[in-house]
User: What shape does this take?
Amino acid sequence: MTIVTYTGGMRFVGRGASGHDVIMDASAESGGQDAAARPVEVLLAALGACTGMDVVSILRKSRHEPAAFRVEIEDERAAEYPKVLKKIHLAYVVSGDVPRDRLEKAIELSLAKYCPIANSLAGVADITHEMRFE
Assistant: This one.
């Protein structure tokens, strides 16, 4: 179970089954103290971590662990409330000895099969991706 507790102002603390906290807050203009990430930022970061963990795990199994890896996420939201996510673009940025075809396969498996966050958001937003090597 996940429980999200109001702690004052516009600050909330979420705690999942793992027992770890995720702190969220709003901007000062929205009544918060700008002391933590916004909920949609947390959602997008969770997407990046979810698919990123899949990709690294799949690459490790083929003995191609990246020297460095990150997922850069750009989003586009609807202009009107509830300002849903319309488009999400994921840039997988990799360095090290990772063959392009292995990376592409790992990304495709993550987005189509393994990452529950990507698969949940796919019904709402158009998710695209690219790969970059540094």
User: Anything to note?
Assistant: The CA atoms of residues 2 and 24 lie 14 Å apart.
